[in-house]
Structures are given as structure tokens and as C-alpha cells.
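R.M. (postdoc): so does anyone remember the format we settled on? I'll just put the C-alpha cells first.
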């Protein structure tokens, strides 16, 4: 696992972050979320991609956990790496590393933990919910209870005993995500980035492909 400094050296500027996010969001190339066209032009002054067909504009962070962010993308990449790598990441330590206010670091981490929840939003995995545990079959209920105990130990170890119920819920999200992605760092990083994204290769893409096939057959 690369160190934080080594990871930061991979993204020396904002453009390197955008290039990486582009490959994560559109691994098979840009696709318009409105019409499905794959042609585009980059408006460099605003860092948005404009569809050549319908002129719909999309930014690299739209509908992701970084939607409308004011923070540099490098800050997000460091925070995402830190959390996805499985190491303890406190708001205070993150604020010191990035030279930002602790409140800003807290909001950033809260968004990341919420993305952890959205990336694996399966009711049965909500092991911290007593009612959902009770509604399961005995073997599943025992497994969920065991996970709940491990999560409580995780929270006490990394965040102490005095944790508010609000923060505790986010820490449950964090534990579940780390537990399910501990051996797949790159995949975990991608899932966090795209957790809230609803615009990746929608049915528009397949509609465009069918249209192209029909056009090719007609000619």
C-alpha cells in the first residue's frame, strides 16, 4: 500500500485528478447522459464536457459525492485514498495534512462515509438496526449480531467510547465498507467515487448503439 505522500505524488495537480476521474467515470469513453452521443468538446474555462449533439454540459464531478465541490480535487483524492486504504482517518489528522479547517474535514469525511453507505445499500447489511436483525432467520440474525459486535469494537478502537448516535451511524457505514472491500483497494476507491453517480452508461448508450447498427445496416 502506497503512503499518503507517494499517493499525492501521483496527482501533482488538478488536471491529473481530472484525467483519473474521467477514466473512472467513463471507462469506455464519454457518453452523454441525455442523448447517448459519445462526441464531446471540453470547455476548459469551466472544466465541463459539452455534448456535440444536444449541447448538454456535464462536469467530471456532477452527481458524484464531489458534486459542486469548492475544494480542490487533490484534497478529495487524498481523503478517498485514506479511507479506502483501510487506515484510520480522523478529521483532525486530515485537516492537518491538507491544511484546511477541521469543520471542512468533518464535512468531507461525512460525505465519504455516506458514499460508503450508498455503495452497499442492502437492507440485510444494516446489522446495527435491531428491528432488522430480529426480522431475519436465526442464522442470519447471528451473523448480523456478530458483525454488530465487531463494528462496536472498531468504533471504540478508532473513535473512542464517547461517540454521538449521529456519528456512530456513519462509523457503522465505514466499518461495513472497509470490511467488504479490505482486499480490493482500487475497486473500493472507484466505488466511493461513483457511489452517488447515476449518469454512467445509461440506457441512452445502448439506444445510440442500436441506432448506429440500424444506420449501418441501411447503408
Amino acid at each position: 500500500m502506497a503512503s499518503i505522500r507517494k499517493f499525492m505524488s501521483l496527482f501533482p495537480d488538478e488536471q491529473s485528478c481530472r484525467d483519473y476521474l474521467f477514466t473512472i467515470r467513463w471507462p469506455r469513453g464519454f457518453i452523454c447522459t441525455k442523448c447517448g452521443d459519445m462526441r464531446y468538446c471540453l470547455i476548459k474555462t469551466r472544466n465541463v464536457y459539452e455534448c456535440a449533439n444536444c449541447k448538454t454540459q456535464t462536469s467530471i464531478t456532477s452527481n458524484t459525492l464531489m458534486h459542486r465541490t469548492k475544494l480542490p480535487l487533490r484534497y478529495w483524492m487524498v481523503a478517498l485514498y485514506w479511507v479506502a486504504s483501510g487506515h484510520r482517518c480522523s478529521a483532525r489528522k486530515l485537516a492537518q495534512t491538507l491544511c484546511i479547517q477541521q469543520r471542512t474535514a468533518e464535512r468531507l469525511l461525512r460525505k465519504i462515509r455516506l458514499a460508503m453507505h450508498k455503495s452497499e445499500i442492502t437492507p440485510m447489511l444494516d446489522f446495527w438496526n435491531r428491528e432488522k436483525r430480529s426480522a431475519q432467520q436465526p442464522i442470519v440474525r447471528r451473523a448480523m449480531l456478530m458483525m454488530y459486535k465487531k463494528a462496536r469494537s472498531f468504533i471504540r478502537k478508532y473513535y473512542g467510547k464517547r461517540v454521538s448516535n449521529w456519528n456512530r451511524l456513519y462509523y457503522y457505514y465505514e466499518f461495513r465498507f472497509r470490511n467488504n472491500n479490505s482486499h480490493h483497494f482500487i475497486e473500493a476507491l472507484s466505488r466511493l467515487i461513483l457511489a452517488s453517480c447515476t449518469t454512467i452508461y445509461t440506457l441512452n448508450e445502448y439506444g445510440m448503439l442500436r441506432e448506429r447498427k440500424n444506420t449501418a445496416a441501411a447503408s
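R.M.: ...and that's the designed sequence above, right after the C-alpha cells. Also worth knowing: The chain has ten helices and three strands. Strands lie at 40-43, 48-51, 57-59.
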